[in-house]
Structure prediction request, 290 residues.
Amino acid sequence: MLIKQLADRGWTQQRIAESLSLTQAAVSNYLKKEDDVHEEDLEIVEPLVQQSVVAFEKDTPRIDVIMGAVCRTCKQERGPGGRFCMLHGDEIQSLNEERCAICSMYLDKTLLKMDVERRLIFDELQEAYNRIRNNKSYVALIPEVQSNLVMGLKNPEKNCIDDYAGFPGRIFKYDETEAKIAGYPSFGASKHIARILIAIRDKIPSIRSATCIVYNQQIKEALEQSRFASLNLENEKDLDALSHAIQAQELSILDVVVFEGMVGLEPLTYIVGTSASDVIDKVEMLVKML
Prediction:
């Protein structure tokens, strides 16, 4: 599926072969084959294909990011309630009868208590943090009030504080070279950013994730150069003003909310997106413009 989508975007067989570490003959054979993914598995496979296409089309594709998405999905689908788990139960009825919990010996106990979607959010947040923790350019953008990275559940009706996961104790700057966290992600861990997301998502349901960085002249100029859809407000605590601004401008897409600050409140830039990885993609794009 990935090969066919890249070919549809005008990639030559040679370019596809080099990018995927295949021979051109293998690429040619794949292009001739019919897709044989079971319908019930498309929900798992198609998002991975789309993520991979987006990653490969970047100037400098991050193979570790692509493989991270594949490995994370594999891990989740092997866990309780995942696709592989269901297949095992269908093939070996005694596993269902005995209420199989074999994976409990191998998976983190915190993860076992979560449903599949919450485990996916947990892993995506952790992977997104790993992308930025040693990025000195990102670390320099952590504000005085520190930062966080938050992501909510897919269902727009699940839009309260405990439906959003973040890092307990925030993301803080360590020795100017590393972004540090105090522990693994947990739901309800970042109430402030969650409240901002709740206000945004009430108007734009697709927005599920956010982080915050500093706001200064450099960021202002970078945002002007970018194609990001932005809102500028004064007070980050005035969520009614945020809701009214989204409604007044009839926004259906939003990438950035700037709170320009006031006495006692630090100016901040909130990068928002459909997922934690989407948010970090936007942060990295912004960093390159500075």
In short: The beta strands are 149-152, 164-166, 171-174, 178-181, 186-187, 209-214, 230-233, 256-259, 268-273. Residues 136-289 form a domain with the L-fuculose-1-phosphate Aldolase fold (CATH 3.40.225.10).
